[in-house]
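Tokens for chain A. Residues wanted.
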């Protein structure tokens, strides 16, 4: 017999400090794929759905794929968006033998702090206790007891930059098929600690996150757990259930799963203050760029980690750009300022023409810098579409809306109409900006940029640009997190 399997995506990393709401229109303008269009867009891509479609072929499943809905991190998801997508999940769940869902784990809606937990609770209620539900997640999910109770298995990515969604979906597919055949009965437990942040923000290159992922994979290989998932949590969320977690999936309920989860979180607690980051000031970064630009054969990559659209920051902070212009950097590039009005001003000027454009600083001028007026030349204009060819989502088409490349002195500045962090060099080359030939490239990203930009860089420097991310790191504005919690409260050793 052929198993009927639901697969669907509802992905949002919600920054509750961001003033821009995430509405149904936001999803529709970002990633909103239904039915055959979903399959056409994701088949043969290195993505979670790419793996899911291949697995369905291998196992002979009848796949139901009603919706892929995803949007760039920003403020709370509207009730209308949540209810619309949840209804599509529940409609697709009728008569299924199992589900392989692709969620994020840090979605906050107007009505629910734990968007994924509520979605999974409803799904479990609809399908009953015996239909296996397997979920892939981002390691920046704020994972809850409700998610662990409602799903059979939670499988978080193990790389940051996240480049293993394909592999994790295959792991989930194999597990789901065994569960549907009755070979295994996966059950998941969760452990947490009073931590607002930890595990080095999820960085997997070294440190406690790397150690725990390695230990978890060893336990999986030894057969002591079906899945061990380590999540660092997402810090820009003022919610009760914020923070790092470990979930362990075993065959049936087993005390061994609980022991593993607790011992892993003991390590996360002990290493809570460990960090691999060393962000430099704008002034220091600019001095460094200026000193190296004349002899550069590869770019210095500067990343403003405090205005990362991938964490729900506004993407229009001007502090770093203004400093680059003031220092008159030569042979430099900047990606990007999110400012649809500035793009329209560039379109009005036309390619090849010179003029003055006011850009950026519109959302959060007190933190990230005010709007700046720049005089330069319109180098190129595009519709913002291009195909990703780097390690993150290779093969997928992305769309940053009408886009402008504006040359100010020795700096090529990208201006985009749809917010998004620097993930792929094609974001730049599609505008005519070749980063490999620049002395300095500035991007807005916390860590994901490394997948595509570290290989071409002579050096990577992360910069504290003073924008919204810096405000959150100072632990300002948390009102709804559970207390006591580190680092807001003191703990006796
Ligand atoms: Zn993430």
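Reply:
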């Amino acid at each position: 017999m052929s198993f009927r399997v639901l697969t669907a995506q509802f992905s949002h990393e919600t920054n509750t400090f961001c003033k821009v709401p995430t509405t149904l229109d936001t999803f529709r303008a970002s990633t909103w794929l239904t039915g055959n269009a979903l399959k056409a867009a994701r088949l043969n891509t290195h993505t979670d759905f790419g793996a899911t479609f291949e697995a369905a072929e291998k196992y002979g499943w009848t796949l139901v794929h009603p919706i892929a809905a995803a949007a760039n991190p920003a403020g709370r998801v509207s009730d209308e968006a949540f209810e619309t997508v949840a209804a599509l999940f529940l409609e697709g769940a009728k008569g299924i033998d199992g589900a392989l869902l692709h969620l994020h784990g840090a979605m906050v809606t107007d009505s629910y702090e734990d968007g994924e937990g509520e979605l999974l609770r409803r799904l479990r209620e609809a399908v009953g206790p015996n239909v296996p539900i397997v979920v892939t997640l981002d390691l920046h999910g704020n994972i809850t007891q409700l998610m662990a109770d409602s799903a059979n298995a939670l499988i978080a990515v193990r790389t940051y930059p996240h480049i293993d969604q394909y592999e994790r979906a295959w792991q989930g597919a194999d597990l789901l098929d065994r569960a549907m055949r009755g070979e295994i009965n996966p059950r998941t437990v969760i452990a947490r600690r009073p931590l607002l942040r930890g595990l080095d923000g999820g960085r997997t290159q070294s440190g406690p996150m790397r150690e725990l992922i390695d230990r978890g994979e060893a336990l999986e290989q030894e057969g002591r757990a079906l899945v061990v998932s380590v999540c660092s949590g997402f810090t820009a969320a003022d919610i009760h259930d914020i923070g790092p977690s470990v979930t362990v999936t075993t065959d049936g309920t087993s005390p061994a799963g609980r022991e593993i989860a607790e011992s892993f979180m003991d390590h996360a607690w002990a290493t809570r203050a460990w960090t691999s980051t060393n962000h430099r000031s704008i002034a220091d970064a600019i001095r460094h760029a200026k000193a190296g630009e004349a002899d550069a054969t590869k770019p210095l990559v500067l990343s403003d980690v405090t205005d990362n659209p991938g964490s729900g920051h506004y993407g229009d902070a001007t502090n770093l750009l203004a400093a680059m212009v003031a220092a008159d950097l030569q042979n430099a590039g900047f990606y990007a300022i999110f400012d649809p009005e500035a793009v329209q001003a560039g379109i009005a000027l036309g390619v090849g023409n010179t003029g003055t454009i006011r850009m950026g600083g519109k959302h959060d001028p007190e933190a990230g810098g005010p709007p700046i007026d720049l005089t330069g030349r319109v180098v190129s204009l595009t519709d913002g579409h291009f195909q990703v060819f780097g390690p993150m989502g290779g093969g997928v088409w992305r769309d940053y809306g009408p886009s402008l490349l504006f040359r100010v002195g020795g700096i090529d500045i990208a201006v985009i109409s749809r917010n998004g962090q620097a993930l792929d060099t094609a974001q730049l080359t599609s505008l005519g900006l070749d980063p490999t030939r620049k002395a300095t490239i500035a991007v807005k990203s916390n860590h994901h940029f490394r997948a595509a930009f570290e290989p071409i860089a002579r050096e990577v420097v992360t910069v504290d640009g003073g924008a919204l991310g810096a405000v959150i790191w100072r632990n300002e504005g948390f009102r709804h997190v559970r207390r006591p919690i580190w680092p807001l409260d003191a703990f006796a050793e």
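Residues 165-180 form the longest helix (16 residues). DSSP finds 16 helices and 21 strands in the chain.
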